[in-house]
UniProtKB/TrEMBL annotation, chain A:
This is Uncharacterized protein. The lineage of its organism: Bacteria, Bacillati, Actinomycetota, Actinomycetes, Kitasatosporales.
Automatic annotation (TrEMBL), chain B:
It comes from Streptomyces spinosisporus. This is Uncharacterized protein. It comes from the Bacteria.
């Protein structure tokens, strides 16, 4: 499908941010994001990248630069989900609110608002393993050590299904889905040893790592795997 | 800054659609790997075999 000019611009901005975050997760530094109201593309790209913008700081337990936190806060405020938004849109926004609240509390700031009640996760009840894996991969920013949510609980309850979905995504060459599923698997108990997750992540990076969004998820998975974290 | 203003104006009309599309993407059609990729996978898979097991049947279209 042909993209609109704005969609292509947005995709490019998301890739630039993803590349920056992936670099930071590998220990390569993290350039501050400055997305004021005058920079609509950056603010929109932060919304698409979601909570992962601050993942390096979350994992390293460091404070993000004030400009980055302000861009993040502005994005949360600018793009509330519509009432009829898809569950992934609603959950993505909730994950950003939760992350924002965490950093505001860490920095001794008064949170502008709480993350609010958890959205409904009923759409994952009884989902096929293929659909579950796809949705989890889209919501990979929720795969964070020690961060509970109804989506994380759904993933925890079906580690073998997520493993099957990971293999399916690899076979379909859907590297973004495979990388997102791989990130979830690093946090789950009960993943079959025969999966060969480390080798699988190597392969996903080899084949799809030129896409910064894939590189980000693989880097996140590795960073969390190194720390031995579980959801 | 007129150019920046213009960009924001252009975004205002359609960005919600683009953003929601990016946040709720449909699963792309699968593209099945070829033998060269199989070889690369064999080299990286070490002693594991699950990723190299026979592929699942392709879904029937129509």
């Amino acid at each position: 499908m042909e993209q609109s000019g704005t969609a292509a611009l947005l995709q490019g901005a998301v890739q630039d941010l993803s590349s920056d975050v992936a670099s930071a997760l590998r220990g390569g530094g993290h350039a501050p994001v400055t997305g004021g109201p005058e920079d609509g593309i950056t603010v929109a790209a932060v919304r698409v990248l979601g909570a992962d913008l601050l993942l390096p700081h979350l994992l390293a337990r460091t404070s993000p630069p004030p400009d980055t936190l302000e861009a993040f806060r502005l994005t949360v405020k600018t793009f509330p989900p519509r009432a009829d938004a898809a569950p992934t849109v609603v959950w993505s926004h909730w994950a950003m609110r939760r992350t924002l609240r965490r950093f505001e509390q860490n920095d001794g700031l008064t949170p502008a608002a709480g993350e609010g009640a958890e959205p409904d996760a009923a759409w994952l009840d009884g989902a096929t393993w293929q659909y579950l894996t796809h949705q989890l991969a889209v919501l990979a920013p929720l795969a964070v050590p020690g961060a509970d949510s109804a989506v994380a609980r759904a993933a925890r309850g079906r580690p073998v299904d997520v493993a099957r979905g990971f293999v399916r995504a690899v076979r379909r060459r859907d590297w973004q889905q495979a990388a997102g599923a791989g990130r979830w698997l690093t946090l789950l108990d009960g993943v079959p040893d025969t999966l060969g997750l480390d080798s699988g992540l190597d392969f996903v990076e080899l084949m799809g790592g030129s896409d910064p969004r894939v590189a980000l998820q693989v880097a996140a998975a590795r960073a969390m795997r190194r720390s031995g974290a579980l959801v | 800054m007129p150019s920046t203003d213009k960009t924001v104006a252009e975004l205002t009309g359609i960005r919600c659609v683009d953003i929601e599309a990016a946040l709720d993407p449909a699963e792309p059609d699968g593209v099945y790997r070829d033998s060269r990729e199989c070889a690369a996978l064999a080299l990286t898979s070490g002693t594991t075999s699950l990723l190299l097991s026979p592929p699942t049947p392709r879904p029937k279209k129509g």
